[in-house]
């Protein structure tokens, strides 16, 4: 069966129909990767699949990495568990509760990952939506004077694992840090994308502190405008993949008394971002 790619009624994203996510053919993989480069976020509605099948699905977009944190709810090292489920008072997954500010995954590392793939297993009745913003469109719509100002600039990015809001970060000397372009180029398409986020980007190098802070606030306010955002309301069985090089994502708050469980695979990259 030939898959159908239907753009979502949003700034980015597409729905994939006619796909058996449990049995990916080479033709499916090629079509999915092409849609990924064009739409940045892909959504597949369907029945739950196994961890093995989720890993194979993720391979359509690149090499799958092992999860940073293991969970008793995962039987494969590649599977990261995102969940608020607790056993004996301890969380069994990562990023368990509440709202999570817009961010790029691993922008605080030298070579951030290429993509993420999430699969919904248990979902609360309300809340917990995941929002994505198109950083290529956000860049394209900047004033020309701002684009000129950003040329060649780099920013320092830091993170403390587990924090969900910038104001709560308390960095240790061991906290990972990385310097990346403020505007990066996507290698397969040549498109430029803003590469900053409110949670992890601390300052723009080469600018006075007050000017750096003002410019970052201006850019973050710009990219978080709803005209650039797709908000995904999860259903059990959904598979969602996003291009981590040109989309930021955030999570809306939800009732912590309700169980939320998603399984994830991470698609690695081989080179750091370039201007």
Structural description of this entry:
This protein is 18% helix and 29% strand. It is an alpha+beta fold. The protein contains five helices and 19 strands.
Question: Key terms for this structure?
Answer:
4-stranded antiparallel beta sheet; single chain; 275 residues; alpha+beta; 8-stranded mixed beta sheet; 5 helices
Low-confidence residue ranges = none
Q: Name the helix and strand elements from N-terminus to C-terminus, one letter apiece.
A: EEHEHEEEEEEEHHEEEEEHEEEE
Number of DSSP helices?
5
For the record, give the distance between the C-alpha atoms at the N and C termini, rounded to a whole number.
40 Å
Label the overall shape. Answer: globular
Strand content: 25-35%
Oligomer: single chain
Q: Let me know the largest β-sheet.
A: 8 strands, mixed
Q: What is the percent of helical residues?
A: 10-25%
Number of strands: 19
**Nearest-integer average pLDDT:** 94
Rounded to the nearest angstrom, the radius of gyration is 18 Å
Classification by helices and strands: alpha+beta
Spell out the blueprint of helices and strands.
Layout lengths: L3 E4 L6 E4 L8 H14 L1 E4 L6 H8 L5 E2 L14 E4 L2 E2 L2 E2 L8 E4 L11 E8 L7 E5 H6 L3 H7 L3 E5 L18 E5 L1 E3 L6 E3 L6 E4 L4 H15 L5 E4 L6 E5 L3 E5 L9 E7 L8
Parallel strand pairs: 2-3
Antiparallel strand pairs: 1-2, 3-17, 4-19, 5-19, 6-7, 8-18, 9-17, 9-19, 10-16, 10-18, 11-12, 11-15, 13-14
